[in-house]
Amino acid sequence: MWHTGYNTNDVNLTSMEEDSNDSYVSRLDLFINVSSMNLSESSNESMSGSNLIASVNDSSVELDSSLLGVAVPQAIGTAVALGVIMLGTMIGNVLVILSVFTYKPLRNVQNIFLVSLAAADIAVAVFVMPFNVAYSILGKWVFGLHMCELWLTCDVLSCTASILNLCAIALDRYWAIHDPINYAQKRTLNRVLCMIFSVWVISTLISVPPLIGWNDWPEVFTSDTPCKLTEEKGYVIYSASGSFFIPLVIMTVVYIKIFQTARNRIRVKAKAAANILKKDAKASASSQMPPLKTVSSDVSKIEVASINCNSSSIEMEEKSSTPQESGAKENQDEYPNGPRNGKQEQANKTSTAVLVTVRSYMEQKERICLQKERRAAQVLGIVMGVFVLCWLPFFTMYVILPFCDNCYISDDMINFITWLGYMNSALNPVIYTVFNTDFRRSFQRLLCGKGRRRR
């Protein structure tokens, strides 16, 4: 039994060893499995962390894009383009004001109108355009109700003042050419300032009514509420008439009359000069030589009939000086009692030479005046063409939309038409100064430092 017992004991020892080996292997497998699970979990956590970071980055990009009402490239392009217009408007109109106050040839009463026009256009560039740029890029109004009302009021006020200043300039030019002698006495600083004051008062009366209740603005204003001009029909008719359509009619009639008056005055004086030349030509062709005193007298008449055309102000002035005056008078003094028989032929030649010279001078003068007449017509056409092109689309849209429930215009088209109107403020300093030599010289002096000595 002992052996059996031994055998039993031996078997028991062997089984115990096998059990211990199995337990060790099991624990080793468990450790490997746990380790692999930990590695797997840490790997998964690492991947999820990377995904989380990527997700955060993506969401931040999406968040940045969500702040804009348009795509990022479009926002950048819009900001650059509108920023250039805004900056150009400010620089151009500031140069106009500095030119009038610092350049002596431009320090006259009528140019105060240009200062008022430039001030209105600067107000458009400073108080209106920047908020419109932000509104266009963000796609919504984020400045609150009160800023919306103030911005819209400044918009109407400054744009209306700009248009009414154009109308005042047209009236001033018409009075200056229609009745130059009397209006030269009436065109005082006080009169001009009163006209400018009237322009700004009328602009205020047109822009303020929505602030005191003449509007259809919502009572509750959120970031999604559009900030736009009131569509109250009565106010639309009132403001559109006072801001654009009435000034448009006045400017059209006035500029037509300015052109007609300038053309008629030029042609009347040119015709008077031609009649004098014809009379002297007939006299020179006759058998008797015209006395030089008569020739000198006719030359004086031609001198009075000569024309000084100024296309920049579209005004004409009479001059009484010609290059031939001294020669004619010398001949008159030389033969006070008429030419003697011995000098008949020489006097005839002198008289004929004077007439030919005067005739060629007057023909050249007439050609120059006709050229300036055409240029003045071009200037008037550009003034009216730019004004109508810039503002007619906006005011047409402004009047039609409140009365047409089925009409729809995209936001991009509305922005384009609105900025087309703002462009008039950028073009005004170009139109009203580029055709004036003094303004060009002043701009060169201010920008390039040329001509500083001329004050």
Automatic annotation (TrEMBL):
One of its GO terms (cellular component) is plasma membrane. The keyword Cytoplasm does not apply. It is a multi-pass membrane protein. It is found in: Cell membrane. Residues 314-350 are annotated as: Disordered. GO terms for molecular function: octopamine receptor activity. The chain crosses the membrane at residues 75-101, 113-138, 150-171, 192-215, 235-259, 379-401, 413-435. Keywords: Cell membrane, G-protein coupled receptor, Glycoprotein, Membrane, Receptor, Transducer, Transmembrane, Transmembrane helix. Residues 92-432 form the G-protein coupled receptors family 1 profile domain. SUPFAM superfamilies: Family A G protein-coupled receptor-like. Its main location: membrane. Belongs to the G-protein coupled receptor 1 family. This is Octopamine receptor.
